[in-house]
Write a structure and sequence with these properties.
The chain has 329 residues and is of the alpha/beta class. The protein is 32% helix and 17% strand. It is built from nine helices and 13 strands. The strands form four sheets. A five-stranded mixed β-sheet has the order 3-4-2-1-13. It has a four-stranded antiparallel β-sheet with strand order 5-10-12-11. Helix 1 crosses helix 2, helix 2 crosses helix 7 and helix 4 runs antiparallel to helix 7.
Amino acid sequence: MFPDALPRPLVTSLVEDAVTAPSMHNAQPWRFVHREASATVELHADPSRGMPRQDPDHRALHLGCGAALFNLRVAAVHRGLRPVVRLLPSPGDPWHLADVRFDGPEDADAGLDVLHPALSRRHTSRFPFTEERIPAELFDGLRAAALLEGCRLVVPGDWHTDTVMGLVHVSELFEAADEAVRAEIAAWTRTGAAGEAADADGIPAYAFGPRQYDVTAPVRDFGGPGRMSGRPSVRFEKAPQIALLGTAEDTPEAWLRAGQAMQRVLLQATLDGIASSLMSQPLEWPELRFEARDPLSAIGYVHMVIRLGYGPAGRATPRRPASEVLAFG
């Protein structure tokens, strides 16, 4: 027996919430298909929106799609539905990432509903944070959020933080020396230059944040050398607070779980009044990614470095409308 059919306006509203998720360079590499006969929403990846040079294995693509999948779950619970997810349901189609049905048990993670207000409030902040330290109990809550999705969030000590930040700075040198990477970034950033397409994806200039004054910033400078040179220069926090999200495995299924855990952590941080940004640069280089992990932790593979702190929340960046990413079949 199939569950009751979902009205198209309801499915559209679910997808509108889902696409508020973060993705690498705001590429939004997802597609949704509503199979009306079985009341199933399928999540598919859109490889045409991948980053061949920075993400050749499509790990970051899976993380972004996993984050959108988590948002879909939150949106469903908020509307009284009971989502049940099956990851990678089509072995012959690697881009068919998940099926979501809505006939789960009555107690299907009702706690997701509390996260719904954060969907519209969570934005990446590439602005300086204060030096105020995040209380240990809030970090405990973020760790618990990751565990609920089968992943681990590690808050590194001083030496490990210094190591990771060093890798961030080395990755910037790698990036500056790689013309293909610079071209890929330029293709997904909008500087407002005359004749530039005003797409509903990519990173707009207002989300670049200011330039770093004196030393290297803990955020990627999407302005780049000679781009948006009129941005002000400011001092960022001296001691960035970061957390590393990872899993024991390094497979597409693990990436999807990590994407869901990442979004759960980001939404919980938003509710806690904590601003955030994602630091993927050192993880984009195989020779640096392994060095990011703590050999004493249970994390086998790091999938994201999350910068956390108190400061401006950042502004919303454009999202493609549901009509572009949702099909009914």
